[in-house]
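Re: weekly structure request thread

Next one in the queue (529 aa):
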Amino acid sequence: MKQMISPNLVSQPYVVMISFGLICAVASTLIPVAHAQAGPTSLMQAATESINRGEAAEAIPQLDDVLQSLTDQFGSDSEELIEPLALRGKALASLGDHQSAIMAFDEAIHIARVQRGLFTGSQIENVYEQAKSYRAIGNYGKWIDREEYAFEMAERNKGEDPLSILSPLARLAENYEIVGNHLAAREMYGRGLRELANNVDVDEELAVPFLFGLAKTYLNEHFPASKNRTDARLDLAVVPTRSTADIYRQYEMNTATTNRNFVIGKKALEQALSIRQKKFDVLESLNAKNAALEPLPLHSDDELESESSVGPKLVDKTARVAPSEKFEDQKRDPEFDLAAQNLREAIVQLADWLLIFEKSQSAAKLYMRAHEVQQVLPESRSSSTNEPVLLLSPKIIPAKAPSEEDRLPQEVGFVKLSFDIRSNGRVRKIKTVSTSPGSNMVFKVRKSILSAVFRPALMDGAPVAFENFEYLYQYPFFPSRSNREKDESQNIEDKNVDEDGAASLPEASAFVSDSTDSQLFQRQPWTAS
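Done, posted below.
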């Protein structure tokens, strides 16, 4: 009779082999999942760190591996692809490949819209990044179009917090101002002020940037051909695609430009100054009360008698020190320092406005007031006033570039001037110091500076004249290949003529006696009268 084999009598080697096979099978299933989850996360962190370190070229291969792994695991329209695509776009943009960056951002935006809805707020940041790349390649129409679209998405997603729209409003207004669309910028700044007016419980400081921006639109409208913007290289009038009719209709009702621009801008800056003055006064009052309370000194004789804290006593008001000394001696209050710095900025903004519109005496009083406020600030936060600061000057139109066939790589030229700046910020006694590559831009630069307005140098807050101020104007240009070749040929010919002429001249010793001082016959360099 054949004996039955009991399961528990199976040999140990077979058990080990079967268990090992099961482990391998499970591992082969889990490894791809782990790679698709933990692997991409760590790779994205490494890629982000590389981009932050300025090593974007190293990040792109890592992000490509992540994108391939996630696509294989979840498909080509997965939400998992949005973040690595956006990171890839940032890496490409930092390397200057803006066209590829635009495509990466476009794909991330598309997936977000497909998976989360056409108006999802998660696409806004990528739209802004895409707008930066359009601006970098000079496609200003697309740049403003993307900025407007991002604002529209922010407006749709503001939800129950109406003030969340303030930052997008300010951003769009600044971009409109850069491209010279002052009317659209003015509408955005006004919209921000209306939003704040409808919320009485907000910090008034939020209104100050909008008041500054509103004044700037009137300044740039009054001086349309002036270099008074941070990005003056752009000179376009990009018309916004969103409801411009009401903006222009409102503008046509207020077309008394000259005086109206001055008055409205001045009122906006005065309102900003009032807001910051109010906050400064409150904090100064609090600090003054704290400074008036001085702790009693703990003498060595008292140390053994009591270990309790010593109470404060009120100092005689006549013995209170001046603000500049008071706040240096006690512990600094960061909030008070910030309020003082902001107040000084608002005073200087209004003073600059008055100076530009030829109200130099009123401006001088405000500069003195700004100096008084600066005295309560520590040296680390003080602003230097020793030299003039350019506020406004007519834009300089560069020479037309040669055709692409005749165009050499771009170079940078300069015109260096020296002039005096009067206490009212106007220029006189202009001198040309040096130029490169030639003098073709000298007339334009001198004409612009002659009409410029500077914030004058300040001595103890008072405007003073500044002599021999040096000003360097730099400009990019494309040299002409044909002109460059002609100049080089002419230089060679001139050199040959000089050498031939020098070789044919007889020595001076042939005409003078040995006792004659030969230095009398040395050629002197020509000088311009």
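The chain has a mean pLDDT of 76. The chain has 16 helices and nine strands.
Next request, please.
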